[in-house]
From TrEMBL:
<protein>
    <recommendedName>
        <fullName>Stress up-regulated Nod 19 protein</fullName>
    </recommendedName>
</protein>
<dbReference type="Pfam" id="PF07712">
    <property type="entry name" value="SURNod19"/>
</dbReference>
<dbReference type="InterPro" id="IPR011692">
    <property type="entry name" value="Stress_up-reg_Nod19"/>
</dbReference>
<feature type="signal peptide">
    <location>
        <begin position="1"/>
        <end position="26"/>
    </location>
</feature>
<keyword id="KW-0732">Signal</keyword>
């Protein structure tokens, strides 16, 4: 058998890829019964124009060595009624895995995690460092979006062989929701326009860069979007309700790995930097410039990037995440055969060609195009 890396899947603001060891698809059935559980996030309270953007550690999640088959979520009130998007805009939610040192107290502030006590366990890439490193997540498109991973695949969690000694596997939730009831400009609030939030510094107290007119730096936790004078909407308790389906792990399941693609990815990784920077890798958001209404027929902004995957394999599942103004996104994949490849075999080295190939070490170039409609600011992962 060729020595090929195992695994592969892409999720959240992008697509899911899965990579098989041998290149042959296994039986389409998994014998274990699918289990399901519905959980609630900690309570968050929103009033007209207010913002929730907090991190909750050690959330309720399936335990043990299992394979996740689907993850669904929505915002509900304190009696379980779904909240419409025109009242509470679900900007995004993400769920990430981390390892916590045994015996440590919980900490719900991601930015106060001590590196030695909390180890972030991100996905398989391809952004720099921990940028977009979550396992699951979507936004306003969450409802009615199919997240089921087909048989015989699943997202493996709870494998004790992967947990560092002295640590335990846990899960972190981030919910970013904006209450748009009574907003002067509902669309502007969901686009996080800085003037509507009266924001000139980010959540760390640093001045906004010149020309930054809207985005995550202006609608962070406890900020306030402008509402109509005299509007009297009440504050209310809300929750993210999430339903997880899983199966007990066994050898009939093929594990998949999560890859997230960002259409703003520059493709550069500067001097090993792992953070956000103007030219460094995934930018997370971008600004779609406004255009004249007289030329509305041709007023489409298309953003495109081309990226190379570190490994090759099968596409198992994919989903795109966009914000208001987004008109669609497309992922194209092509296997590049313009070089000579070698697949290491136990007994010999085989020179690979387009006619004689296996799923080992082929670079896969993925091109992602997103179309957005001005004049709105449209943020896209």
């Amino acid at each position: 058998m060729a020595l090929c890396s195992q695994g592969g899947l892409l999720l959240f603001a992008m697509l899911i890829l899965a990579f098989n060891v041998s290149g042959t698809l296994a039986s389409p059935e998994i014998g274990n019964q699918i289990k399901s559980a519905t959980f609630l996030s900690p309570e968050f309270v929103l009033g007209p124009g207010s913002v929730e953007d907090r991190y909750y550690s050690n959330i309720d999640f399936p335990r043990g060595h299992v394979g996740i088959k689907s993850f669904k979520a929505e915002v509900v009130d304190d009696i379980g009624n779904p909240i419409p998007l025109h009242e509470t805009y679900l900007h995004h939610w993400v769920v990430a895995k981390y390892y916590q040192r045994q015996g440590m107290a919980e900490n719900n502030d991601k930015h106060k995690f001590q590196p030695s006590d909390y180890l972030f366990a991100g996905n398989s890439g391809i952004c720099q460092g921990d940028v977009l490193g979550q396992y699951f997540g979507l936004g306003s498109e969450t409802r009615k979006t199919d997240t089921h991973v087909p048989n015989p695949y699943a997202i493996e969690i709870g494998n004790l062989d992967e947990v560092p000694e002295g640590y335990e596997e846990k899960w972190l939730l981030n919910v970013h929701a904006i209450d748009t009831r009574g907003a002067v400009d509902r669309l502007g609030c969901t686009e996080c326009r800085c003037d509507l939030y009266n924001i000139t510094v980010d959540k760390h107290g640093q001045p906004l860069r010149p020309g930054y007119i809207g985005g995550l730096r202006c609608c962070y936790d406890q900020t306030q979007c402008k509402v109509q004078q005299g509007y009297g909407g009440a504050r209310r308790s809300l929750y993210l309700r999430y339903t997880v389906e899983w199966v007990d792990w066994d050898c009939s399941i093929i594990p998949v790995k999560i890859f997230i693609f960002d259409v703003t990815d520059t493709g550069k990784r500067l001097n090993g930097s792992t953070g956000l920077g103007p030219e460094n890798g995934c930018q997370v958001e971008y600004n779609v410039e406004s255009c004249s209404s007289a030329n509305s027929d041709g007023c489409i902004d298309a953003k495109r990037t081309s990226l190379t995957m570190p490994i090759s394999g099968y596409v198992i599942y994919g989903v795109a995440h966009q914000h208001t103004g987004g008109a669609g996104s497309t992922l194209y994949g092509e296997v590049i055969f313009n070089l000579s490849f070698r697949c290491i075999n136990k007994s010999r080295i085989i020179k690979m060609t387009a006619q004689n190939c296996c799923p080992c070490f082929f670079p896969l170039r993925l091109t992602w195009t997103a179309f957005s409609l001005p004049p709105h600011i449209s943020f896209l992962h």
